[in-house]
Design the sequence.
C-alpha cells in the first residue's frame, strides 16, 4: 500500500459552466444524464449538482462535481467513457465552456462572483457546520487530552485543531454536503 501526503491528493470540487444552443436543451439534458450517471460509477465521486438555466435565450448550465480525491477526479477526467460522452455534447453546446477546480478549504468559503460556485444560503451552511462541529468538539478534545496528557496544553490544542480541520475538510464536510445536497441546493438535480 502506498503512503502519501494527503495534501497532494485533496478533495476537489469542479464547476463546469456550459452554454447550450437554443432549442437543444432537451438533447443536452439526455447526454448530461448519461454523463452524471457515468460519473457516479467512478471511485471517489461524492455527488453532483446541476443548476438549470434561467435565461432561455442563452441557456447556461452550471454543473458542480465533487470527488473525495484529486486522483479519483483525474481518473474520471481521463476516462475514455467521459471523452465519448463529452463528444456527444459538442454539437449541442456553444464554445468550450468554463471550468473551475477548487480543492481543500477553499471549497468551504467560495464567494459568489462571476463564474464562481454559488454557495448555499449562509444559514444552511451554519446549520450543517454546527451539526459537524458540535459532536467533534465534544469528542475529540476530551479524547486527546487523555491521550496527550504529558504534552503542554497549547500543543494539545494545536493537535486537536489540526485533527478537527482535517476531518472537516477531507472526510466529514464532503459527506455532509452530499447527504444534505437537496436541502443545500434545492434548484439542483
Sequence:
Amino acid at each position: 500500500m502506498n503512503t502519501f501526503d494527503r495534501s497532494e491528493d485533496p478533495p476537489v470540487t469542479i464547476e463546469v459552466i456550459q452554454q447550450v444552443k437554443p432549442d437543444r436543451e432537451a438533447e443536452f439534458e439526455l447526454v448530461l444524464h448519461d454523463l452524471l450517471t457515468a460519473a457516479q460509477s467512478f471511485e471517489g465521486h461524492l455527488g453532483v449538482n446541476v443548476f438549470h438555466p434561467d435565461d432561455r435565450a442563452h441557456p447556461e448550465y452550471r454543473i458542480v462535481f465533487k470527488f473525495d480525491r484529486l486522483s479519483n477526479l483525474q481518473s474520471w477526467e481521463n476516462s475514455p467513457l467521459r471523452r465519448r460522452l463529452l463528444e456527444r455534447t459538442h454539437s449541442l453546446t456553444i464554445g468550450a465552456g468554463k471550468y473551475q477546480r477548487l480543492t481543500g478549504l477553499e471549497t468551504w468559503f467560495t464567494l459568489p462572483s462571476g463564474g464562481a460556485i454559488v454557495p448555499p444560503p449562509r444559514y444552511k451552511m451554519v446549520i450543517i457546520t454546527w451539526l459537524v462541529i458540535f459532536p467533534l468538539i465534544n469528542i475529540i478534545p476530551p479524547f486527546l487530552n487523555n491521550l496527550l496528557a504529558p504534552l503542554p496544553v497549547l500543543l494539545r490544542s494545536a493537535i486537536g485543531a489540526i485533527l478537527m480541520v482535517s476531518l472537516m475538510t477531507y472526510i466529514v464536510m464532503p459527506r455532509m454536503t452530499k447527504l444534505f445536497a437537496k436541502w443545500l441546493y434545492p434548484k439542483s438535480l
